[in-house]
Amino acid sequence: MISVGIIGGSGYTGKNLVKYCSQHPFIKEFQVYGLNSANKSILELFPEFKGIIQNRIIRDINLISEYHDVYFLALPHGEALKYVPHLYNIDKKIIDLGGDYRLDSASDYENWYGKKHTSSDLLSEKLYGLADLSSLDYSNIKLIANPGCYPTAALLSLTPLVKYFSKNIFSISTSAYSGTSGAGKTAREDLLMSEMDGNAAAYNLNTHRHQPEIEQMLNKNGFNGNYSFAAHLLPIAVGIYSTSFIYLADKLKADDIADAFQAEYKNSVFLRMREKPPQLKWVVNSNFCDIHFSVKDNNIIVTSAIDNLIKGASGQAVQNLNRLFGWEDYLGILNDGAKDVSIY
Predict the structure, then answer these.
(1) Does 108 or 39 have the greater pLDDT score?
(2) Catalytic option among 17, 149, 295, 309
(3) Is the pTM value of this prediction over 0.85?
(4) What fold, for 2-147+311-324?
(5) 21 is catalytic
(6) DSSP labels for 110-150?
């Protein structure tokens, strides 16, 4: 049994962390820490939890206890740098849901995030926690960088392809679409319902902070060709839909592609291959990632769908927690367990 601290628990991802921690069989207790939300109760922020979780007061983020075994950080970019080094030095396990430790290079972080990285020595110590990958080794890990939402959707659909066929791939491009909750709870005029209803638009073209995160992992899995990424906003609250186009030097057989996905995800509880392109409604409010691929001549089109707040944030974070301690992936996330781990 462990104790958990949630630093920055008043946002959308914090809300789901509270839910999952409250129903996890091996978490004996958890405490939420906040800044503007300090001294409020959880039920003040999330009244829908009444009768579901035990109410408690959110503590001041400046008074974080060192008692906890594991700390989730759900903070704006740059804020985790204030807390992670100390927690790391006192031998705590840390799962950072922000972008401060995802990139391997401090200079890349500074170029893309516009902030100085003050603990660059930890970048090489972290594990990039794309939890469904078969190759991840959690032994002796203290710091996990929880992947971003767009990278989770894109990389889960692309990793088997680049891992097994990278020498045969000319280039890859991804067009991905997100609900407005990906921007967090802070009020913005362009995210008002009156602005987004019936609307859709691309944004941050060639400047999106998730692009180098995706490219970094593609490179690590053997692909060094051209990659492009375009993000779009949809008039929905939750969900990410990713469509990637893979251009091949030579044709690949559909059976060989299917074998690559099977080899990578055969033990994954939360990865589901679909016979037709997935729909967002199949995955919203869940930790599943649904994937479909289509191959014709020298082109592969692969689509994926996730809930950006769960699989793209808090659900994957709890999945990483379970991996850290050698527990079943589904604990705290699926109440009735996982009865079938076949991806097809």
Answers:
(1) 108
(2) 149
(3) yes
(4) Rossmann fold (3.40.50)
(5) no
(6) HHHH-S--S-GGGTTT-EE--TT-TT---TT--EEEPPPHH
